[in-house]
Amino acid sequence: MLSDQDMEETKKEISLLMQLRHDTIIQFIGLCTSPRYCLVTDYCAKGDLYHYFQRTRNNPPGFKQKISYMYDIAWGVSYLHGRRPPIAHRDIKSMNILIDADDRAKVADFGLARIRERSNTVMHTSCGTINWQAPEIWRINPSYTEKADVYSLGLVFWEILTWGEKGYPYQSYTEQSREFLFHRVRDCHYRPSVKSLEKSYPSPIILLMKSMWDPEPKRRPSMDSVAHKLRKYLQD
């Protein structure tokens, strides 16, 4: 049985999902209420990206397939940000990206998504998963826009390029060391290492990823720009 709060959050997610129609956004089909509440969506046979890393670590996909996943996600998030008013997902992470039988990546889990009613407004609620959260969300009085999604997706791109070999971002930090992590990422601009990636991938891809986790939100690229740059690699 869902609590009143859970029911309200489920209604919000359903309301939002019913508005969305895009190839790389999970498609809402219906709601099941018995024997328990659950959303019915597209079936993605390969599961979420995080666990897909683990199952295929010994046989990772090639460069072009990785770029295809990155493009699919960027295209989907660009669709959200390009709506009027824009939609910020606010919980972009590998666990919320699903892979279907055709190897297409789809953005899922809109429980924390928020519509930004006016283009000149910012959001103030702290939410998401800290390992993928943009540092501006960690402030005592957070103020941020959909550029927080761009930061989170930069970390997902790092996961894709390393194919989970390094785990998820900042995996070595525990709940007890949260404040130290905040200090390193927010104040010292610490980011995951890209040294091993620089030897294996084109420098424009690495530079694009690093620009997405820039400490200054305004300097991060738009998701439309990210998708456009990735698409070029799929057209070659």
Automatic annotation (TrEMBL):
State if Metal-binding is listed as a keyword: no
This protein is called Kinase-like protein
Q: Which domain of life is it from?
A: Eukaryota
Listed Pfam families:
PK_Tyr_Ser-Thr
Decide whether keyword Nucleotide-binding is in the record: yes
A molecular function (GO) held by this record is: protein serine/threonine kinase activity
Which SMART domains does this entry report, sorted A to Z? S_TKc
Record key words, sorted: ATP-binding, Kinase, Nucleotide-binding, Transferase
Organism, by scientific name, is Hesseltinella vesiculosa
Positions of the Protein kinase domain:
1-234
